[in-house]
Design goal:
Layout: E1 5-7, H1 11-20, H2 48-58, H3 64-91, E2 95-96, H4 97-114, H5 127-135, H6 140-151, H7 162-181, H8 189-203, H9 211-242, H10 244-260, H11 267-272, H12 274-286, E3 292-296, E4 301-303, E5 308-310, E6 315-319, H13 320-324, H14 343-346, H15 367-384, E7 385-389, E8 413-418
Parallel strand pairs: 1-6
Antiparallel strand pairs: 2-8, 3-6, 4-5, 7-8
The structure holds protoporphyrin IX containing FE (HEM).
Protoporphyrin IX containing FE is lined by residues 18, 43-44, 55, 220-221, 224-225, 228-229, 232, 289-290, 293, 356-359, 362-366, 369-370, 374.
Length: 420
C-alpha cells in the first residue's frame, strides 16, 4: 500500500529477471538479522555475497549422488505409511490424504534435515509433527504478520513462533552435540553440513558453518521441503482418484519397472519411470505449491527496448500459477493431462512458462530431493492401494485463500482399497 509492486507476465522478461540479468535481481527481499534471529540466516532469506557463499557451500549437498545416498532413508520412512493406510483400508475408513502425506513428509524431512526418527504415524502428536504442523498453521496472526511484511520489509521474515523456534534450536543443538561427541554418523543433511566443517578445519579454510548457520539451513529445509512435497502428493492423489485410467497406467508402470529390479523400489527403478515423471510434472503444473515468487531489484534496471526503468528496491513478482493456468501456454489448462509432458510434447512448452521450482541461480536447491520424496510416497501408495474420490469430495476443491503454499481449503478424503 506504500509502494508499487511489479507483476511481470511476459516470458522473455521473466527469463531476463530470473536468469539473464540476475545480478540486478539477486534478493528475495527478506529481513535478515543473524545476531538476534539466527534462523533468518537461511539460504532463502540471505542475499548478496552472503547468499552466494552459502549457496556455493550447500550446492554439493543436493547433488544426485547425495540424494541417492539418502534414498534408503526416504524409503524406510514409507513403511509405516503403508502399514497405516493398510489399517485404514481394512477398517473401510476414508483416508485423509493431506494428513497421511504430511506425516510421511515429516518423517522424511525430520530424518534427513535433523537426523531424527519422528514416528509421526505411531504418535501423531510426536514433537516434530506437532511443531511441523504449527510451522504452517494458517492463523490470523500469521496472515497479519505476512501482510505487515509486505508493506514493511523490516517485518519480512519467516514468521516462526517463539516456541516453534525454540523447539528447533534445542533439537538441533542436541543432535549436533551427539554427532560431534561420538562416532555416530547418518546419511543426512546434518552430517553433510558437519562434513563441510570437518573439511574446512582440515584445510584451514574459513568455509565452515557456525552452529547458528547450520540450524538456519536445517529449519529452512524443513520449512521449504515439508509442505511443498506433501501438498504435491496430495494434489496428485486427488487427480488420480478422479482419473482412474491415469492411475491404472501409472500403477502398471510401477509394477513393470519394479519387476525389472527384483520387485524392489530402488532408486534406479524410480528414475526409470517415465510416466511417473509426466504425472508429477503435470501435478506441479496444475498445482505449483509455490504459486508466486519474487525478486527485489537491487540496481536500477532498464527493460530492453521500452525506456522503462525498474527502480532499485522495487519488488518484482512472477505468478507461477498464472503462467501454468494460462491457456496460451497450456491449452485447456484445467484439464489434468500428463501427455503435455511426454517426450514429444515437452519440447513445445515455451521456455519460462513452466516454473514449479523457480529459475536461474536462485532455483530451488532442494528440487531433486523434493521430487524423489514425492515419487517414493506416490509409488508406495499406488503400488499397494487403489484410490477413488470419497462421496463428500468435489472435483473442483476450493483453494485455501490465506495459505502461503498452495493447498486445498479442506482435508482431502479418499476411498482406499488394497490392490488384490
Ligand atoms: C515439490 C517440492 C518443492 C517445490 C515445488 C519447491 C519450490 C521452490 C520454489 C518455487 C523456490 C523459489 C525459487 C525462486 O525464487 O526462483 C524454492 C526455493 C528454495 N527451496 Fe524449494 N521446493 C520444493 C522442495 C524443496 C525441498 C525438499 C527443499 C530442501 C530440502 C527446498 C529448499 C529450498 C530452498 C533452500 C530454497 C531457496 C533457494 C535460494 O534462494 O537459493 N525446496 N523452492
Amino acid at each position: 500500500m506504500s509502494k508499487p509492486l511489479l507483476l511481470i507476465v511476459e516470458p522473455e522478461l521473466i527469463k531476463n529477471v530470473l536468469s539473464r540479468d540476475f545480478p540486478y535481481f539477486t534478493s528475495h527481499g527478506m529481513h535478515v538479522d543473524e545476531e538476534k534471529d539466527p534462523i533468518s540466516g537461511n539460504l532463502f532469506s540471505l542475499d548478496g555475497e552472503k547468499w552466494k557463499n552459502m549457496r556455493i557451500k550447500l550446492t554439493p549437498t543436493f547433488t544426485s549422488g547425495k540424494i541417492k545416498m539418502m534414498y534408503n532413508g526416504i524409503l524406510t520412512c514409507g513403511e509405516p505409511m503403508v502399514d497405516h493406510v493398510k489399517n485404514i483400508a481394512t477398517q473401510g475408513q476414508p483416508m485423509n490424504a493431506k494428513e497421511v502425506l504430511a506425516c510421511f513428509t515429516t518423517d522424511v524431512i525430520g530424518s534427513s534435515a535433523f537426523g531424527i526418527d519422528c514416528n509421526s504415524f505411531k504418535d501423531p502428536d510426536a514433537d516434530f509433527r506437532k511443531y511441523g504442523r504449527k510451522l504452517f498453521e494458517i492463523t490470523w496472526k500469521a496472515a497479519f504478520a505476512r501482510f505487515l511484511g509486505i508493506i514493511i520489509p523490516r517485518f519480512r521474515r519467516l514468521g516462526i513462533e517463539q516456541d516453534v523456534q525454540q523447539f528447533f534450536v534445542d533439537s538441533f543443538t542436541k543432535i549436533v552435540e551427539l554427532r560431534e561427541s561420538g562416532n555416530f554418523k547418518r546419511n543426512d543433511f546434518v552430517q553433510l553440513m558437519l562434513d563441510i566443517n570437518q573439511k574446512a578445519e582440515a584445510t584451514g579454510s574459513k568455509d565452515g558453518l557456525k552452529l547458528g548457520q547450520m540450524l538456519a539451513q536445517s529449519v529452512m529445509f524443513f520449512g521449504a521441503g515439508f509442505e511443498t512435497s506433501s501438498t504435491t502428493m496430495t494434489f496428485c492423489l486427488h487427480e488420480l482418484a478422479h482419473n482412474i485410467a491415469i492411475q491404472q497406467r501409472l500403477r502398471e508402470e510401477i509394477n513393470a519397472t519394479m519387476q525389472k529390479y527384483d520387485g524392489k523400489l530402488t532408486y534406479d527403478a524410480i528414475i526409470e519411470m517415465k510416466y511417473l515423471n509426466m504425472v508429477l510434472d503435470e501435478t506441479l503444473r496444475k498445482y505449483p505449491p509455490a504459486s508466486m515468487i519474487s525478486r527485489v531489484c537491487t540496481k536500477d534496471y532498464e527493460i530492453e527496448g521500452t525506456g522503462v526503468t525498474i527502480e532499485t528496491g522495487t519488488e518484482v513478482f512472477v505468478s507461477i500459477l498464472g503462467l501454468h493456468r494460462d491457456p496460451e501456454y497450456f491449452p485447456d489448462p484445467e484439464k489434468f493431462d500428463p501427455e503435455r509432458f511426454s517426450h514429444e510434447n515437452k519440447s513445445n512448452i515455451r521456455s519460462f512458462t513452466y516454473l514449479p521450482f523457480g529459475e536461474g541461480p536462485r532455483i530451488c536447491i532442494g528440487l531433486r530431493f523434493g521430487v524423489i520424496q514425492a515419487k517414493v510416497g506416490l509409488c508406495l501408495l499406488l503400488k499397494n492401494f487403489i484410490f477413488t474420490p470419497h462421496e463428500s469430495m468435489k472435483y473442483n476443491m476450493e483453494i485455501h485463500k490465506n495459505s502461503q503454499i498452495l493447498s486445498f481449503q479442506e482435508d482431502l478424503l479418499l476411498n482406499v482399497k488394497k490392490v488384490s
